Amino acid sequence: MRYLPLSNQDRESMLNTIGIETIDDLFDELPKSEVPQKLPSHKSELQVDRELSQIANENLPYSRVPSFLGAGNYCHFIPASLDYIVQRGEFLTSYTPYQPEISQGTLQVIFEFQTQVALITGMEIANASMYDGATACAEAISMASRINKRSKVLISGGVHPHYIDVSKTQLKHLGFDIEVLEPNIFGKEEILDKLDTDLSCLVVQNPSFFGDLQDYTAVANECRDKGVLLIIVVTEPVSLGLIKTPGEMGADIVVGEGQSLAGPSNFGGPGLGFFASLQKYVRQMPGRLCGQTFDKEGKRGFVLTMSTREQHIRREKATSNICTNSGLIALAFSVHLTLLGENGFNRLANINHKNAVELSMRLKKNNKINVINSSFFNEFVIELPRPAIDIIDELVNLNILSGIPVSRFYPNSPNLSNFMLVAVTEINTESDLDLFANALNEVL
Amino acid sequence: MRKNFLHEEPLVFEYPFSDKSAVDFNSPLGDSENIGDLKRTTPLGLSSLSEPEVVRHYTRLSRLNYSIDTGLYPLGSCTMKHNPRLNEKMVRLDGFMNIHPFQPEKTIQGAYKAINLLSDWLIDLTGLPVVAMSPAAGAHGELCGLMCIRAAHEHNGESKRKVVLVPESAHGTNPASAAICGYSVESIPCNNRGRVDLQALNNRLGDDVAAVMITNPNTCGLFETEALQISDAVHNAGAYFYMDGANFNAIVGRLTLKQLGVDAMHINLHKTFSTPHGGGGPGAGPTVLSDALAPFAPVPFLIKKNKKLCMVEHAGLKDSKLSIGRMKGFHGQFGVFIRALSYIMSLGGDGLSQVSGDAVLNANYLRVKLSKYITPFYDGICMHEVLFDGSFLDGSGIKTIDFAKAMIDSGFHPPTMYFPLVVEGALLFEPTETESKQSLDELIEVVTELAKMVRKEELTEYFDQSPINAPRLRLDETHAARNPILRWNPDPLLKAAE
Amino acid sequence: MENYFYTKEHEWVTVKDNLATVGITNFAQKQLGDIVFVEFPKQGSVYSQGDEISVIESVKAASEVYAPISGKVHVCNNDLEGSPDLVNASPEGDGWLFKISEFDSVELNSLMSRDEYEDYIKNIEG
Predict the structure, then answer these.
(1) Which of A55, A198, A436, B36 is deepest in the core (most CB within 10 A)?
(2) B472 touches chain C (CB under 8 A)
């Protein structure tokens, strides 16, 4: 068994040192076992590789066919050097950097990550990461209530339905009163009238779940007047390469999903929750924070700081129960942003946007297809003459992973069945767009 | 500027700004824009480096880290074991890495099969009927289990139960998770054998108690020998029994949770099942549930219909009537699942019981060897980790932290310090099964030599100063907390010059 | 010298001009270590004896401060915002936390005198 370094002689001699006969003697205090017998025994590396490859081959990866999938998880090209860096054992196999003298690599990466998140969201500070965008959203709502001691929450119908569901689950026993607006598929939500002085926070998403772009500056001003905290969710951070930052609009907390910059879809997990806010709210923030300091020689160094907010010190009074976060994914995200740099990030966003606009124009030529959005980043909704789920299925048979049926997220809204979410990124080619447009012409 | 070929590496933002990028692009497929008036007009302030500079930056930073690849990590309760590279290869298979969570079901049957296979293994290894796969980490799994418990009580008309009992020695996540569930937390003392005081537990149990959370083996590295009596007492009082599975590595393949009367337990795949810790995460915390709690499991989960696997994504449907709802976006930590699956398949049922055997053997070897020099908290066999207290330092003026930091200069990561809180100056060593006898002997020698130095008064300063051979001397954590600098900011002078 | 009264939770209180000044004891600051932050109660808010009124944080610990007597928060020691280390340097002087008004001095009788407190911490220290 290749992962076990003790030889039988080692075991004998160690048992001898301990003064017992067999390893089983170490487990004398356990109840007599009924060890499960169904499990197969150990396998060679070659065999595991074969068996898992066979299972993997039962999937149709988006790398092999034209694909237009988004809805909070986006398929971007990942530079080769990113995965090389992520797989360096010193990053991959290190623990949470509680011993700063021997963890400066991880700590500096977190500090750079916190800075990058703050920069692209236009906020003052950011934490070291959360599990994913959805759980970060729930944590943001909870943080807002710690700040303004209110408990009423308003969530826009343009927020990712998973984020709404997770927030509802995670906050259900904490005395919140959560109102969720109807799915905002046509981008015509009236929010301003709904802001009250007893509202704790308003949660909106930009670009919305349906791809719409909106300037929330006026909403932010109204929020500030009423003491309501504005939480802006971003599920496609590549958009921030091109559009006005949530900070510039006046957000108090910005949370979102970093997967899109960090790596491939991986069937949706592990993700990367990013969490940014204003400096004045730092003591109410959940999760780890890395801060700058000096060592005894006066050299700059980094440490995990303000830990008294966290569960290992504050226990039931902590700002969150989170411990393990998404460190490695945060590294990947950070490396990608460093590789892109200011110009590359802008260019990537620009290409995403233009490719998406191009597809939307080609689809508009078919009069059976209705493109809903007036403005968008790299994702939009189309309305089809019949249920999207059937059309998607027919397009799979033509080897195209076309889009996502909106109805999948709203089981109680049958009226949404003809809508399809379509995302376009830099990985799509000219021929992808042609194949998709032509296939739709064919099946409609 | 250099110490042992280690470089002082600036922040990426401290390199000169230019128009460089390490990524070249294809041209966009069209030229039109449709962004309204939302276009950003000011730069963000990101860095600008070429690929060679980026690779060197991160490679240099990586070398400032300690890691399991470079040395033993004796961190108690963290199970820092070897991370097999086969796992990394498997998760990067095209068919696993490049699949989107919302592809049509017929294109991702392999993904469902992989999740289902891992579920089957976890169910077999724990003996409980159902596993909720979506929790993202241990603490998230605790929340999952407690939410199911609360839902079950409410379903049974027992809403008045609002207290969760945890031992004093519990991980901080236990009370924090209970609080999110709207429960208040009370602690149960441990007895003079380092275990939960059954009498005290019995005295406290009543119709206001919703659940009892116990780590087993506990954070003192001891098996809760009265686990069966505890679970009986908990159930007789109408409460549920949550077991914190952080220390599952000690017992994997040796007994099932069903035997122990457990209602819920999370499994840290990033501990017991070898997925890399990555400097802080990601993990995964699948949570096994008893029959009583199974109907409340969070969505999404897989069911079999006409011999095909399909996913139930919403609560309140036919198959998910009582579900607590959704806890995480998408379908759980899939990439972590594949790594754990690759590990489990590699070791098999026989290998996993050897894992717990060797892990406990290694810990006991450390215990016997080190007990001559540093004071064990408890005499007798321990499980996968061994707990020492700080009393061997009494009168020396050296604190536990100083002793642990001195280990760094001898090439070892310190053990867990000052935890569990019930033991003064605690040092908790967990070697795991992936350390050879030779590497344990090296660790033993280092700790032994340091312990001998403790008794020589003139060497106190050595401990105060250590580490001196690490990339940094001790860092001023007070300064960091009093004057929080949590991000890089442009030099105000430079900004003014713009 | 003014009369100081002490609680089992290591707060002190002393009365002057109808205001009760509250802080933590030297013993408490030593236990906490380097103090990095003091979370103040809202000025004007009313607390009962024994209520959690403030939190003091060091690098690795957070400790609740309980109201030693019932009353209204009159003013907080704003100097601590920039220099929380004052609590370490001068716990029973410049490092005071807040002043309470509208209290009932009868409650002071339930607290310990300096001598009693000194005996009390001797017992804790063993």
Answers:
(1) A436
(2) no
